[in-house]
Structure formats: structure tokens, C-alpha cells
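Open question from group meeting: does this chain pack into something compact, or does most of it stay loose? Before anyone orders reagents, we agreed to write out a predicted structure and look at it together. Recording both the input and the output here so the notebook holds the full record.
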Amino acid sequence: MGQMHFHVSDAAAEFFHQCRWNDAYLCGIEGVPWQTRNTFLPENSQASGPVSSPSELPEGFAKSGNAGGRLTLTRSVATSAKLLITGPVDGIGYRVLTTCSLRCLDAPHRLILELARGCCYRVRTQADTWQRGGLSLNQHFEELLAEGTRHFLDALQPKSASVNPHSGASLISASLDAEQESAQSAIRAITILEKASSELGELFSSQSLAFRRSREPRLSTMMAVGVSPEACCAANGSASGRPISSGGPIPSGGTSAGGNKPGSTATLANAVAGFDETTAAIDNGIVPAFNAAAVRISWGDIEDASGTPDFTEVSKILDECASLGMRVIGGPVIDHRDGLLPDWLTLMDNGFEKLLSSMTQFVEATVNQFRGQVHLWNAASGLNLSGPLRLDDEQVMRFSIGVLQTIRRCDPTTPVIMSIEQPCGEYLARHADGISPIHFADALLRSGLGLAGIGLNFRFGYDHGETHPRSSLEFAQLIDRWGTLNAPLLVQLSIPAAPGTDPAARLQTSPVSLSPSIKNQAELWARQQHEFAKPLIETLLAKQIVHAVVWDGASDRAPHVMPHAGVIDSNGNPRPMLPYLTKLREELLM
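C-alpha cells returned:
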């Protein structure tokens, strides 16, 4: 049993209690989290004992002047590790902050100081690495780096600590002053260095994109929009047993941008967006923003009863995509998340072999039905999680290989990928069930089944199944880590653009703000979606190993999976993401 302790001074308590410390975790050099149990012990003797959640602290404690204490993370081993904790950065929002590698000691580490050290190390080393590779740094970055480093050094050795004890000043008072000064300098260092990190990430993406365009004026990267068969039901007003929007006939006509075929732009726009009116906005909005569609061809959507799949609505969407010349990513054929598998599976009591047989039967029927209409198969998503099927590690591998083998047998020419949920592995920090994401992907690539690539599903800003928010610099490092597998990557992004309940969403996970200053203002949420996603998308386009980017959500007006993720809001108005993606396609993509 190993424990890592972190001291939180009263001077740093306000910053700490804005952090999501109950979701903090420890990881090693590979970036794979250990399962940890987090507790906070207040130093205030009148406060409660160790607590595992901020909600367990006494009311008003976090805002008191004596709110410091000790954060302890307990795990099964006592090796060195890095702490990752989501904290607020002034002017930026929530970001994952990381320490350098630390030893397990009985004495606590100084939390804020170690986070500042981690920020300083990360941005300085990455800047040096990229500069050696040819990246040009600008004066603004150099100034931010120098200022942030200076504040970190001030936090290491505050001026108050050099008070002469023989001058009559109180040693206790001098110690408190030094602690206050150190905490303030460390927080200031974190803020400035995270801004430097953002600037460095922007320099990398802009210069890398310029280099790619010098060789490839139009990038071949697929920019796809997530489409659900239920959206087609809604647009056509058909009865399917699922909630749909009311609507009339879908008009046709118009010409889409980007070389798409004329004549049926509005029908795809309605199928994608769930609209039956204002076709001009859809015609000039959604379709020109994307050169591909990620069509959900999923077990839970198609087979309401065992052995009776209904492919009608999927066929309509695929026909529309073909008429517009849009490439199609089909799947995930198996979506291993709670609420997205067929309901009748819960009634199956014949064990794993019966499950495997039912899955094979469905996958075979699906691939045979749509062979030639799908340009890339997304075989399955989320099998690295414990999921609703509660499979053990051996069963997960057998199930995964069964899906891949069936698709390859029925359609040997179309590329197949497998998608990973929470690619950073945050789920491993809360429970031992589940498989390390990168090790799972590596095992599949080594299976010899001809896997064409790996999908990475990032869902930022949700209270369940989310990836903790990262800067574009850390995101680039994460993509590089996955790039060591030497396989093409497909990256899917989901980011909410509104707070509260989304009645049209299949998954009722709650959106969580990516900034402590944004509460329930829908307009600010929509702007936050764009500002957070923009540097990540540009980082992905700068990476040659990323072959496709999927925006998971077209319109919140039609049935969809993730709450409030669409580029069109529930009232039919475009969000800031839509003109951004449209411009991006016009300038960069085929």
C-alpha cells in the first residue's frame, strides 16, 4: 500500500477548493492511472475528519480563512508517480495540472509548489524539443515563459523567508508571510505558464499546418459530423417508437459548397440536422462544414428485438450521403456504453457464448447490408470500459476479435478501426475494472486481424465518462503518445454548448462547465465550446497520423446521443462552432 501526501496551506486553500480534487489521480511514466482513493484532512481541528468529496466538508469551510489541510492519495503500490488534478486557470478555465514525478514519502509535498514546478517543466521541455525540430518561438511566448519561470523561482524561495530573525521580527509571522508569498507566486506561475503553454500549442499547430499545406495544399483529413438514424426519423416524421420531431415534407434543391453534388443538399441537411424548414441555413451551414459523415450504425439503435434488425433509416442516410459525395464512417457497430446496447440483452441468461453468437449474427447482417456504402467501419467503441456487459479481460478480447473477424470476413476490402473511450484512462483511477486504453489498442493491433487504425473518443465537459480538460500542448503530447502505436488515428470530440437537461439526448449525462466563471448562461457555453475545441481541432489537423476528426453532434433539435453537443442548437440557430468549421473546410480540407 502506498500513500502520497500533499500539504495545502491556508494561503493556497482557495485555489485548492476550486480544484476537482476528488477526481485527481496518480500515473506513471506510461500515463496509465492507478486506482486511487482520495481523502482530504482539514488542519482545522474544529472541521470534520478525512473526507472523500468536497460535499462532505462543513458548510462554508472552503471559503474560511483556515481551510488548509492534507490531500492524500492511496493506491496499491509505493512507486514514484505524477499527480494529475483539474484546477482553475485564470483567463483560461479548468485544465489538468500535473506535477513532476514524485516519491512516496511520509512527509507531504507542497501541492501548489509542485503543480507550478510541473507547469514550468512541461512547457520548457516541450518548447526545447519542438524548437530543436524547427519550431520558431515568438517574443510573446518568450516573455510569458520568462515571467512564469520567475514567479516559480519566487515561490521556491520567497523574499519573506530571508528575514533576519535578530531584527526583532516574529519568526512565526515571517514564516506565515513566506508561506503566503510562496502560494501567491506559485498560483501566478501556474496561470502564466499555462498561458505560455496555450501560446506554444498555437505556434505548433499554425506552423505545422503551414508545413503540411506546403506539401499538400488541400488536406485529405476527413472532417466528419456525427449522424444518428433517429435524426432521419425526425426529419421525415416517421414513427419508429423513438422520440422524433414533428415535420412536413423535405424540400430539395440547392447546391452545396465544396464540390458536393447539387439537387439534394437540403435533404441531407434535414437528415443531419433534423429540420423541416429554413433549408437555406442548413444548405449553407452544416453540409459545407464537413466532408464526411459518421453515421451511427449501432446494435442498440437497429435491433429492438433479437434477430430482427431494422436498417430502413440507416439506408436513407447512407443514400443521402452518397448523393452528396460524402464519405461515410459507419458505426460504432457495437457501442459498449450504458444505455446504448439493445435492451433485450439484459434478459439474456445463456451466458457469454450466446452473447457472442447474437453479436456475430447482427454484425454479419449489418455488414452484408451496407457493404460498398461505408468507406470505413468503426467496429466497436468502449470495450476498454467495464460497461454494461461486465465482461472480464478474456471475454473482452474474444468479443473484440469476434467483431473484427466478422467484419473482415463479410467485407475484406473496407478498412476497420476500433474506438477507445476515455483514452487517458480516467476510469482506471476510480475502479480496477476495465483495461488500460493504450495496452488494449496495442493488443488489438498485434492480433493480426488487419485493424486499419484506432479511434479515440474524447468527451470533455460531462459528469460521466469525460476526459479531463487539457491544453492544446498536453493534447498534442497525448496524440504523440498514441502515435507510438504506428497506426492511423480517428479522433472524435464531444463538448457541450449549453447547461442543463437535453431531452433529445440518448445519454442523460450532465454537462459540466469548463470554466469556473461560466454558470448557466447558454450563450457563454456556446462560445466556450468553440474556444475550447478550436485549438484541439487545429492540433489534430497538424498531426499527419490523424486521418479523421469527427464532431459528435449535428443538431440538438433532432435526436442525438451526447447532450448539447451539436453545432446547431435546439432552436435551430447555428452555434459559433458551425461557421468556424465551415471556414476551416473551405480553407484547408478537400
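Observations to bring back to the group:
Confidence is low (pLDDT under 50) at residues 234-284.
The two ends are 54 Å apart (CA to CA).
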